[in-house]
Amino acid sequence: MDLSASIDDLISRLQAYEVNPDDIPAFIGIDGYIDKIQKVVQSQEGASRIYYSTIADLGARIQQAAGLSAQLELVSQEIKLGGNAPIMAHALASIGVSNYCLGNFGAPKIHPLFKQIHSQSKLLSLGLPAETNALEFDDGKLILSEVSPFQSINWDYVKETIGLSELVAYCQTTKFIALVDWCNLPLATDIWSGIRQELLPHLKNDPRHFFFDLADPAKKSQSAIEEVLEVIGSFNSYGTVTLGLNENEARRLARTIEQQTGKTAGEELEEVCLFIYENMNLTNLLVHPLNRSIIVSPQGIHTIPGRLVTKPQISTGGGDNLNAGFCFGQLAGYSLEDSTLLGMATSGAYVQNGKSPNRPELISYLLNWKNNL
Length: 373
Prior knowledge:
Helices cover 40% and strands 24% of the residues.
């Protein structure tokens, strides 16, 4: 892959992209959080604070407190709308893709924080939002979430709250359906299965793109992961199916499949990706470690080099912006490699600048990326 030429091509196509204001091609769900973006104080002198820069440094401090006690000071950098679904929906709308977003955004009225979402993202609320403390570091983040508002949300609840006929109407014109944050909704598998069995058969038009993001499945049981992988595969009869994972999620999934099949995945991440793809019913697998992205499809496996942001303004939501950029590329008819490159650029611009980019900002980021190759 000629990275410089691919960036030039993406810039040209982004500049030529035209928005149809009456077109709502995407449907995204299901979660919704109030996010506190926070840093952990390591030391303080007067009004000056030094924050823990790595998760390992904080881990060592916590380990020292075992059997004793400790007090850690948190400093909130920002309080914002959160959740895989609304962040992805906002990012897609910022680039130019109108969408419906299903999740917990407030009841009986939309919470004021969710009114910050892009005007081209139409919110369908199921109830009160969950809450997250996102502790950010230079090398990653720790997400501490209170998800009790999701406990009772199953497919029947979704149908009763929104209405099946209304959901069919919302999805009828869509070309892309994204289902995310499986790990934090206890009954997410029931919802995804309900969509597959009761919603999709009512939809007309051409086959759709389906995108899935499990979020971190570490706390889920072997049987629960096996069940949701089977449900994801069942969407293949209605269109293309892409599963998006970070490196940690990919390795966890591989261990589950190893236990299920008795096969061995290998150690290299590319081997892990091929192993997952060969043992699931997917069209595409997208895996995004920090320094690159790996896409597996019927055409084989491809690795696209990334651009590491050394001093991130924010990291919570970076993966959701990557998913949004990738999905935009697929909706626009780009190749898998170019869609993946666009996803990494969308994520990089978000992490670097602290907000989802619009198209001019995305083009600026791509130009800067090219100039620094």
